[in-house]
Amino acid sequence: MLKMRSFSVTEVNQYIKRILAADPILRQMIVEGEISNLTKHRSGHYYFTLKDDQSKMSCVMFANQVATLTFSPENGDKIAVKGQISVYERDGRYQLYVYDMEKKGLGALHVAFEKLKKELAAEGYFDAKYKKTLPAYPARIGVVTSPTGAAIRDIIAVYNRRSPLSELIIYPVRVQGAFSKDELCDAIEYFNKRDDIALIILARGGGSIEELWSFNERAVAEAIFRSKIPVVTGIGHEIDFTIADFVADLRTATPSAAAEVVIKSKVEIKMALNRLMMQMAHAAEMQLETNSMRLKNLSPVSMARRYRLQIEHQREMLMGIRQQMASQMQWTVKHDFERLDHIGQKLHALSPFQTLNRGYAVVTTAQHAVQSIADVNVGDSIVVKIHDGNISATVDHLESVTEDLTVAQNGPAALPPKD
């Protein structure tokens, strides 16, 4: 049996690294692909995956090369990078060390994401008026997530730490892959059929746009929009946004953040109860003060003062009415007096005594006024009334002189004055 020399892992990785470094094509090459899982490290380095439809490649770009870029790359950008293929000895994997980068456009998934986002926004799926208010203290919370992922562990950890009064009902689903979108929709529909679920958490750990794509499906967006129960999302990391986040009633950055928001601790509940008790105490004090003021207003002194003021007010009103009535009566009497005086002047002008004052006389017999010679006979006694007295006479002659005598239409005959 031939004996072979053994190598350490480090020696093998170093050997492979020397082989790759000796290849002139791998020392400097341009690779095109789409950025995924981009991490901008606090040191300034960029770590990301370059992918196409079939494969992926790990890449790193150090801070001194990053500083030369004229744009800020993002997940989904289609780029062309120039770099060198080498082995990262510690992990025993090859990666592309990038020293230049050029933007080519958006990847296919990001184009589809923006297209669906625009369509749903136009249809009103993201409108604030459709957002439901979260219950302050949900008794039962439905959790839709993978039963084996980091998301459920984070949610349970928050649940245990906050000493909750709520109950978690977990609906296990696949959160990526061909069937995951249907399972997500079924879970949301299941909780909506129950009458004891107050709120739904839709959660998943971080990942690339491909891994989070189930939460960018129209079917999932429609299921969230149709839900009568408020939906809170905690999907990926803080920088990750999905279509589900835009449709949900509340978006949180991570699964842990979603649990922190909806699961109230005993401390928070106690603080809320204290606030409520303080509000009730303040309201009671205000009510007592109001009732005390009312009682004071019902005391004999207060009531006498109030009624005295009312009586004074009524008296002033009556005095005003009295003055108005007196003024009205004075005006009415004056008006009627002037009218009667005017009528009296007219009657006075028509009085037969005025006719007598002008030199005329009125002739009467014992029975009636004489209006015609036919009213008397020779020998009849008559009375001639003038302005300063009466003259008694006897008729000794009758002569018709009607053409010279003015006779009033319905009044006594008048003799013309003497020359």
Characteristic terms for this protein:
3 domains, 42% helix, 419 residues, Rossmann fold, alpha/beta, elongated, 22% strand, OB fold (Dihydrolipoamide Acetyltransferase, E2P), five-stranded mixed β-barrel, five-stranded parallel beta sheet, disordered C terminus
Explained architecture:
It is elongated and about 200 Å long. The longest helix has 51 residues, at 300-350. A five-stranded mixed β-barrel has the order 1-2-3-5-4. Strands 7-6-8-9-10 form a five-stranded parallel sheet, sandwiched between helices. Strands 11-12-13 form a three-stranded antiparallel sheet, with no helix packed on it. The protein is built from twelve helices and 13 strands. Helix 5 (150-161) runs parallel beside helix 9 (255-262) and helix 6 (180-193) runs parallel beside helix 7. Helices cover 42% and strands 22% of the residues. Mean pLDDT is 86; it is low at 403-419. The protein has three domains: 9-106, OB fold (Dihydrolipoamide Acetyltransferase, E2P); 112-126 and 135-264, Rossmann fold; 354-404, no CATH class. With 419 residues, it is α/β, with parallel strands linked by helices. Strand 4 (77-88) and strand 5 (93-106) form a beta hairpin. The protein has helices spanning 9-22, 24-27, 63-66, 108-122, 150-161, 180-193, 218-226, 243-247, 255-262, 266-297, 300-350, 352-357, and strands at residues 29-40, 46-51, 56-61, 77-88, 93-106, 140-145, 167-172, 199-204, 231-235, 250-252, 362-364, 381-386, 389-394.
